[in-house]
Amino acid sequence: MLELRLVQGSLLKKVLEAIRELVTDANFDCSGTGFSLQAMDSSHVALVALLLRAEGFEHYRCDRNLSMGMNLNNMAKMLRCAGNEDIITIKADDGSDTVTFMFESPKQDKISDFEMKLMDIDSEHLGIPDSEYQAIVRMPSAEFMRICKDLSSIGDTVVISVTKEGVKFSTSGEIGSANIVCRQNQTVDKPEEATIIEMQEPVSLTFALRYMNSFTKASSLSDQVTISLSSELPVVVEYKIAEMGYIRFYLAPKIEEDEEMKP
Amino acid sequence: MAGGAVDQSLLDLLPQIHALFSDPLRVISYKWLSRKFSVSSNDAKRLLQEFVNKHGADLQVIYSVSGWLKNNPQNYCVKLTSGPKLEEARQDFKHSCSVQIYSIQACIPKDTAVLWNPEFVQAEELFDQPFDQDNCLRDNRFCGVLNSFVKRTSSGKHVSSLPPKPLNSTVAVTHSKPSVTPKEQSVTARQHDLPGSAKQGAGNKSEKDNSMVLDKAGNAPVVKEPSNGSKNKAPNGKALPSNGGSLANMWDRASAKPKPTNSTAVASVAATADAQICAKEEADADSSGDEQGVKYKRGSSNANNRKRRAVFDFSDDEEDDNIVSIASPELPEQCTPDPVTETAEDTEVNQKNLENKEDVQNSVKGCSRGVDSDFTSECKTKIASTVNNSGITLKEKSRDPPINDNKQTSTAEPASTSPKRRKVLKTRIDERGREVTEVIWEGEPSAGDKAEKNVTPTAANGATLPSKPQPAANTDKIKASSKTAGNKKPANNKAGTKQGSIMSFFKKV
Known about the structure:
- The complex is a heterodimer.
- Chain A has helices at residues 9-19, 72-79, 141-152, 209-215; strands at 2-6, 25-30, 34-40, 46-53, 59-62, 66-71, 87-92, 98-104, 111-117, 126-127, 135-140, 157-162, 166-173, 176-183, 196-199, 203-208, 224-229, 235-241, 245-251, 254-256.
- Chain A is mainly beta.
- In chain A, the strands form three sheets. In chain A, strands 6-2-3-4-19-18-17-11-15 form a nine-stranded antiparallel β-sheet.
- Chain B folds into four domains: 8-108, CATH 3.90.1030.20; 116-300, no CATH class; 307-412, no CATH class; 423-504, no CATH class.
- Chain B has helices at residues 8-11, 14-21, 30-37, 41-55, 86-91, 113-128, 187-190, 193-198, 202-216, 226-230, 245-256, 265-283, 290-299, 301-308, 312-327, 330-335, 342-355, 357-380, 382-387, 391-398, 400-406, 408-412, 447-450, 475-483, and strands at residues 27-29, 60-68, 76-82, 98-105, 423-429, 435-441, 454-457, 497-499, 507-508.
- The longest helix of chain B has 24 residues, at 357-380.
- By secondary structure, chain B is of the alpha+beta class.
- Chain B contains 24 helices and nine strands.
- A four-stranded antiparallel β-sheet of chain B has the order 1-4-2-3, sandwiched between helices. A three-stranded antiparallel β-sheet of chain B has the order 5-6-7, with no helix packed on it.
- Chain B is 46% helix and 10% strand.
- The termini of chain B are far apart.
- In chain B, strand 5 (423-429) and strand 6 (435-441) form a beta hairpin.
- Chains A and B meet through strand 2, strand 6, strand 10, strand 13 and strand 20 of A and helix 15, helix 22, strand 6, helix 24 and strand 8 of B.
């Protein structure tokens, strides 16, 4: 028996919108500690890890660990039927092959039930070690989204370089090249507009902009995004979910080839 | 001849006999039949006669001829003879000999022990049933000698019957059951011990039985076994009337290890009998006696440690391999032959192996685990361990951990009837002549996903850095080159970049 009541139902809607482009099918794992998801995109380049802690739900009941395979597009379709103010309750019975989403309007005058079929998904769970990153950049998520969007109109890849001066996003394409530098800036009125760079050593990595762009779909979840970089590790793009958990995107860097690449 | 009218109810058994007989390895003797269907042995003989009358053409009959011998009238003789030699055998007897069907079978076995083995195994099964369960051997219902003063309680607390012993054990049984028969005289007095000790854990019980038999039958021919000998320190005076299971139990253990070479002729007799029992069990896979074997296995755990992990490990590992190969794209690449740069690919593969040694070692470990100890011992003891269905339960237990290691998540998936999609590998040649292995979702036609296929070029210009173990890296490049034909390929002057795979950084749990 599983029953999760989330007062701020829009969070779940946003989460789904954030990951459904990257991952089409995924297993949601429910345990006593929370509601989580880990999934790779189909080409195994990016990974999304979602955690919604049990404390963040108004009511959280999970009798035993449950893994529910869902098509995220279908789930998003159902969640779109919920109003932004609605309270969403996720319910599933043990051994059942369906999950029920219940939407209650804030005034309790409308209650909707949506039942969705689950699916069996062969998914591999990766162990993600806690790592020290050479550079951690915290910046407004809207800013990061804007940068990725702008750069993707010029090139396919973005080189993210962190130096003492700041973080530089650069790309180049047929029409030209672009560089955007964001300096450290903690002297703003609103903390959510700060750009904070913690750097152990300079690092520069290349990533596919296509993935970065889909990560930024989560920008509505959080004002700030944290980008953690290490030369030997995938980048982590993390959006905190208000007092509940996080959504983290891992992206494997592009690697320079020593040999010529001629068609 | 055991003629006479046969009840209709008995005749109803004939189709079942026919079904049993259709198993070519089976020897159907009247004793076996009698116990199997709980009919008296005379009825069983008549049934066999009926069966022979009906289907006599395509079966071989063994007759039991009994009577006073001609040459030496003092001797009453019971003789088994095959159908063609029946008349010849009758010549030795006085005219009033009785001829009954002993058994029917598809062909006359070369080794006469085969005739007796099914009965022996069956007797063991019956004696090995729980004590509260009545059966034809335990309550002695078909015995010609009955003691009306004997009370039987089926609960097993107060069993004071004659020692359970196979009926009609005159013909073939006596010569090969030395360890059971000598103890029969004093059994009734000791019967009280029996239920209690039998209620100990199954393991204890059969082990004790074992050592008992070894102790008591020290004078009788017994297969010597090293491990048993060391465990043979159970000198408590309770003489268990060994309930038949112990002999096969010993044989089981004996066969679980290399045959002792110090053996005498007796040992070899036991060995052949063992083999035959096993062969019989193989033929008899559907028989109800399998649970009996389970007990033996649990009991003799020390000797059978190696056996436990045997047969099914292989299939498991293959399964795991499949999972690995579906999940991580490097394996398919290793599998697909590279027509162009074979050597380069080879070294690359080696490096990949180094990089991914965790994965690879897992599977290798799985394989070698199956191979090194089990398989060799498997070879030595293949009859016993492949035949005994009893081992299955234990093996299933021991195969759980590897599964948990490798596919935790998939076992946690809800079992359901909902549409199932799985990843499959497809290999094709792209328009640039490269061999491309893709991992795609089967049964997912949407074109949007096609763009996200895992494209893994294995050939030609895909020479990779050693530090890049994952072939999925080229996704973007392939797309850019083969689909959008370089419309906005970055014009950076570097030689080019490859997309790394997340799986080269994080290992599966």
